[in-house]
Amino acid sequence: MIHPIGTDTEQVSVYLDDTYLAEIDTRVIATGKRDGTSWAAVEQCPFHPQGGGQPADRGWLDDEEIVPVRDHESGLVVAMAPEGGSLPPFTEGQPVRARIDLRTRMLHAALHTAGHLVEAMGQRQGWEKVGNNHFPGQARIEFLMPEAETRLADPQGREEVTATLQAAVVEAIKDDLPVFARNDGERRRMVHIDDLHAVPCGGTHVRSLADLAEVTVTGLKVKKGRIRVSYTAAHRSA
To answer: Quick check: pTM over 0.90?
Structure first.
């Protein structure tokens, strides 16, 4: 994903190409303020901002801790000081080292990929996804409740369907399906789990399902015409 800044300078979202890139030497290409707080944007941006159900990375510019935020006016991902803090006066053209907390990134990527996997297994049940949250401790996929769905009317039926989803997730991980991104004919970034699932997505993801650990469908609830499937996931240790 590339965001134009001026006539000859662009920001490249390198986190879309390499989930596991922990740091990069780059340069400041824009500075500004948002709600009175200063920010800086870098040319090769490794920072994933909050969006698409995924939390923001934890990151640093040189030794300054930052929070990446999407600036909707410029379209840039900008590095801001944490709430209550401030950044030093970065200047355009200044060389900087941008880095992320890789352990946090790997957790976010695992939760996001596991969410796509749960979505795929829900679609196998004939359900349509209508919502998602990939935050640690809150991860869930929500589906529209089909009128013909009768299995979820009682606790036993919900337990049986939950077990079916869990078994399907475990089997896919055992098959170690590859996870990759490609642009479609409309130039949308599509994230694929091999031939099992594909969806437009701007998040970070693991390289293959074997990188996932502790993927558990922890609950299934039905409320106001929606099926909420909660889950947990972690990244497998190297």
So the answer is: yes
